[in-house]
Amino acid sequence: MTARVINPPRRSLARRAMAASSVVGRMDGVLLVAVAALSVIGTLLVWSSTRTWAPGSTGLVKKHVLNLAIGAVLTGLATMVSHRRLRAYAPLVYAVTFVGLILVITPLGSTVNGAHSWIMLGGGFAFQPSELAKLGLALLLAMLMAQPAKGGERPRGLDVGVSLAVAALTMGMVMLQPDLGTTMVLGVITAAAMIIAGVRKRWVLGLALLVVAGAVGVWFLDVLEPYQIARFTAFLNPASDPRGVGYNSTQSLIAIGSGGLFGKGLFRGGQTTGRFVPEQHTDFVFTVAGEEFGFLGSVTVVALLAVVLLRGMRIARRCDDRFGAMTAGVIVCWLAFQSFVNVGMTIGIMPITGLPLPFVSYGGTATFANMIAVGLLQAIHIRQRPF
Predict the structure, then answer these.
(1) Cβ–Cβ < 8 Å for 180, 190
(2) What pairs with residue 110 in β-bridges?
(3) What tens digit of pLDDT does each residue of 29-81 get?
(4) pTM score, two decimals?
């Protein structure tokens, strides 16, 4: 009598993908859920703010969903890349993004809302190189400062000097567009990289003084466009001209305040339906949440953003690789600053700078950059060897 050989049951593809030893099984599920929830909420807000005027009433929503789908693919691709290998290619990634900044100031570039920051691709699609420049600069600065010259424990003067030169060149190219909001984000990325790397205090102080001197120079040398100066004027005193430079701020506060605790309901916001708040599907998308979902809905959006940032901080803190920890830390600072400025300008505590709300606002290149950043966080998380 021959014994039967019992083959172990074959696991389905889904079970194998979710196994603890697989890439998917080792991903930070909480981070993914928070980003997915923000994307769903953002889609509803974009739909509500564009349904009365967008072509076919759902035209922009369909493009937004397509951008999110492409972003999800980019997240997966970035997750598959080892951040230790990516370190070697950081200069190449930066070079590609810098070429994009050069192309924008050529005849290929186009002006949208006062900023010459776009390259039109046709079919209603556009590309904004300055968004990907955030990623390129973050990776290059992490590479330059993660391993100081001559094997020191902290970056030396040469490391910091080269890093500041690269950052200044990048910010200078973006200011030529001019895009003040993105320039501010690039400055935060630079400062975050220096602080996380543990540079000496005198370098941090020098950078702060340089920023102040640059801001004063930009203001008095008439580098800013009239509409940018008007935004700062409106921030200082929005009530001085509520129908002019203070219009955006005034209408934004009205929209958020009218939502009360529970909101007026999706598609029922008077400010949103009447298009009283400009650019409500992009820079001012948070006002839709305030009016239609109320205070509780707004807090939910902020809480989900906080979850993304806290999970990113956790990944940075637990990573034993210096380049990975720096990359994760810089990404968290970038997303935190951009979220704070966007929400802050809608409630009147920050000047209007034209920065979208990560994972929520309508956008193409900005969505791709944010999703790649999440993919990099996941790549660092699944390959880290925590102490």
Answers:
(1) no
(2) 118
(3) 999 999 999 999 999 999 999 988 776 667 789 999 999 999 999 999 999 99
(4) 0.88
Quick one: which of 377, 381, 386, 384 has its CA closest to 35?
377
CB atoms within 10 A of CB 216: 10
Length of the chain (residues): 387
Q: What are 99-154's pLDDT values in tens digits?
A: 999 999 888 888 877 778 888 887 667 889 999 999 999 999 999 988 765 556 67
Quote the CA–CA distance of 354 and 347 in Å, as a whole number.
14
Burial state string for 180-202 with b = 16 or more CB within 10 A and e = fewer than 16: bbbbbbbbbbbbbbbbbbebeee
Q: Return the SS3 of 196.
A: helix
How much helix, strand and coil, in percent to the nearest 5, is found in the chain?
65, 5, 30
Q: Is residue 303 within 8 Å of 339, Cβ to Cβ?
A: no
Q: How far apart are CA 81 and CA 378, in angstroms?
A: 10
Count Cβ atoms below 10 Å from residue 376 Cβ, excluding itself. 25
Q: Are strands 125-127 and 109-112 parallel, antiparallel or unpaired?
A: unpaired
The structure tokens 């505590």 sit at 349
The tokens describing 289, both together, are 């949440």
Decide: 370 and 178 in contact? Cβ < 8 Å.
no
C-beta neighbour count of 257 within 10 angstroms: 14
Q: Count Cβ atoms within 10 A of the Cβ of residue 58 and give its class: 0-12 exposed, 13-18 middle, 19 or more buried.
A: middle
